[in-house]
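re: ur question from yesterday

yeah so i grabbed the chain u mentioned. its 187 aa long if i counted rite. heres the sequnce exactly as i have it in my notes:
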Amino acid sequence: MYRDLELLYWWPNLKRDVAKYVESCLVCQQVKAEHQRPGGTLQPLPIPEWKWEHIAMDFVVGLPKTTKGHDSIWVVIDRLTKSAHFLPVRTTYSMDQLADLYVQEIIRLHGIPVSIVSDRDPMFTSRFWKSLHDTLGTKLSFSTAFHPQTDGQSERTIQILEDMLRACVLDFQPSWSRYLPLVEFPC
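ran it thru and got these structure tokens back, copy pasting raw so excuse formatting
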């Protein structure tokens, strides 16, 4: 419609006016081809039955560097009890280093989880990470892109952690990772 009008007429905001008209025209809306698939119904995450069988994880990034070079926190949360581990990491860690840390700090203490919910961080979607969990028999689930509420539990815990860390960083700037275990508790 815009192209046809543009050939014969011109006025300021012609394109915007045509778009408004088409949006308000019932016939235009009825004949317009649908280019998006309809969304599926929302499915809540099932409530876990045993602690540390179903976990969520995410990274808090952009923190000031510590004396040990840590600039991020890997947050791992038990979805049943809401207890969490806050692991100081560097954004430069390789997948091998993260896998080793995961085995030492999570699997060693709690066993292999049945499922993990995370966002679509490249670390969690990498071939190595998927292969590791295929081998371990852990199901990986990812939150919807640009919709962090899918995994609201870990997002809320991260929000609480960041508030606490800001206070901690103000007092203990270069050594915040040393005090990280003090904020590990059910949020």
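noticed a couple things. The first strand starts at residue 54 and ends at 60. also The first helix runs from residue 2 to 8.
anyway ttyl
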